[in-house]
């Protein structure tokens, strides 16, 4: 499958997971039938802050692929939020934007949250997938560096940075590969986990891989790590959905079924699954319902040739 097809799969997979998962956010479990009914419905599917921030990051990467100016990225996030504050943003980023208005730099503002530990939420991981589309990100060191730079604009806690690193490296690892298959996916997840610093995200990823390797279902793996907004819970949960699936729609539906932060878990899982399998098995009618589909595809193709 050509690289640009995988790239399209990443951004559309992200938006699909976000938009499909959004109505179920906060539920403890979601029945498969409910997700399927929403999948088979008609009308525009709007996405939330996850895709909104990923779009902003995508546009910044096209003008500043090294993220040499993180505050310009932060300012772009802040502008996007001011324009569309109704996209379901968490409480962290708006606090950062307000502190920057008062004169702090972005990283300084982000680092002051939660009593000085910075946010350990999944906000940096949910938006990071476009980083994995850059050619330079096929080097895991580059992917990790860019993931961390874009994270620290709003999320400075090590778990938030590690979570973003996982999504960026898995997307990058799967986008560049010529092979498709469960083995390849497992291999990329394992290599990514082994590169991570010791910490909560790595620990739970190891647990997820062990559950899946011993024949456990993704639901069981996700239940062990939790499905809340913490990066150390939701990023491994998204990986569990990826490891248990064979195509983006199946992966996203499973991710939503876990409950909890459904839109973000499904967005992260959808981006990784889109990199692995492209969109061949996603019904065209469903993609047509996605808000800003054309712009997402254009950005994906542009990023993958950068
Ligand atoms: Mg959201």
Characterization of the model:
It is a single chain. This protein has 306 residues and is mainly alpha-helical. It has one domain: Orthogonal Bundle (ADP-ribosylglycohydrolase fold). The chain is 66% helix and 0% strand. The chain is built from 17 helices and no strands. The chain has helices at residues 3-21, 32-39, 49-63, 70-83, 92-101, 106-111, 113-116, 140-152, 158-176, 182-195, 200-213, 218-225, 231-244, 248-257, 262-277, 284-288, 293-304. The chain is globular. The protein binds magnesium ion. The site of magnesium ion (MG) has 6 residues, from helix 3 and helix 15.
SS class = mainly alpha
| Coarse shape | globular
Small molecules (ligands, ions, cofactors) in the structure: magnesium ion
Please give the CATH architecture. Answer: Orthogonal Bundle
